[in-house]
Write a structure and sequence with these properties.
By secondary structure, the chain is of the alpha/beta class. It folds into 2 domains: 4-154, Rossmann fold (3-Layer(aba) Sandwich), CATH 3.40.50; 155-301, Hypothetical Protein Tm841, Chain: A,domain 3, CATH 3.30.1180. The protein is built from 12 helices and 13 strands. The strands form 3 sheets. It has a 6-stranded mixed sheet, with helices on both faces. α3 (66-76) packs across α4 (95-106) and α5 runs antiparallel to α6.
Length: 311
């Protein structure tokens, strides 16, 4: 039987990509005040960003419950004997822990592997896609797990943020630093280091930030797959894709949109770049970006699960 792949909605996979590769996506919850939505199910990306800008309350997010995962695993156990469930970094969310608990609740004979990707957004998405392609080819659990390990080791993600405002609202950046960023029109650049969101520099303009993202691609070796993620700037993402086409086949560059689960932290104007390269080149690549002194985290993903409306 074919190994089935599960991930969560923070992977920012397009519905078409998930369907084509047979990936099951478990939604994260987004709450505006008393209203609770399932990411990608009850609220569209356009609706979310409109509310994000206009609502007097800032949205909070919470991981899927163990019972959410248990239902998915129980359903998949009717179709397969083996499941690989890959999720965003456990250092920024409780989703991985919920998946582990869900595996116990499912009480199925199906073999379920729960994996911490140490990544977010399309960093996670690229890992899940690599696993799903191998599973679709009929490879067994051992081969799929080996591919996941290789993909995790070789995946890198970088982000350009238009403002520090939404990271401030998440509660982990001091008000003084956020005010300074606003006054100087500073755009932060972040990456994932050992599963944590970490700063790698700041730029004064978006144009300079995009040049920095391009430099990361130029400096990389043997990129196997590449993705762009934007929150509210599709034209900019399209132009960025064309420029990346000078270094990597444009037809192989995925473009997706930052969903509500991560958009609550990034806000409008966020632009992410994720790519997967050969593991043999990773150590050399890691020396090319200065290691940060301090890490950020996304605390609201760990908030207690809100009471959900009846469906």
């Amino acid at each position: 039987m074919t190994v089935r792949i599960v991930t969560d909605s923070t992977s920012d996979l397009s519905p078409q990509a998930a369907e084509d590769l047979g990936i099951t996506v478990v939604p994260v919850y987004v709450r505006f005040g008393e209203k609770v939505y399932r990411d990608g199910v009850d609220i569209s990306q356009d609706e979310f960003y409109q509310q994000l800008v206009q609502s007097p309350v800032h949205p909070f997010t919470s991981q899927p419950s163990p019972s959410d995962f248990a239902r998915v695993y129980s359903q998949l156990s009717k179709e397969t004997d083996e499941v690989v469930s890959i999720h965003l970094s456990s250092k920024v969310s409780g989703t991985y822990d919920s998946a582990l608990q869900g595996r116990e609740l499912a009480q199925t004979k199906c073999h379920i592997e729960v994996i911490d990707s140490f990544s977010v957004s399309m960093g996670l998405g690229l890992i899940a896609m690599a696993a799903a392609r191998l599973a679709k080819m009929g490879e067994g659990l051992h081969e799929v797990m080996n591919e996941v390990g290789q993909a995790i080791s070789g995946t890198r993600i970088f982000g350009l943020f238009d403002t520090l405002k939404y990271l401030l609202l998440g509660g982990r950046i001091g008000k003084a630093k956020a005010l300074l960023g606003t006054l100087l029109n500073v755009k932060p650049l972040l990456t994932m280091r050992n599963g944590e969101l970490s700063p790698i520099g700041m730029v004064r303009t978006r144009a300079k930030g995009i040049e920095r993202l391009l430099d990361f691609v130029k400096d990389a070796l043997s990129i196997q797959e590449l993705a762009i993620v934007h929150s509210t700037t599709p034209d900019e993402a399209s132009s960025f894709r064309e420029r990346l086409g000078s270094f990597f086949p444009q037809e192989r560059i995925h473009v997706s949109r930052l969903g509500p689960a991560l958009g609550a932290h990034g806000g409008p104007g966020t632009l992410l770049l994720a790519f997967r390269e050969k593991v043999s080149n990773l150590k050399q690549e890691l020396t090319k970006v200065e290691r940060p002194k301090k890490a950020f985290s996304l605390p609201s993903l760990r908030m207690p699960k809100p009471r959900l409306p009846h469906h």
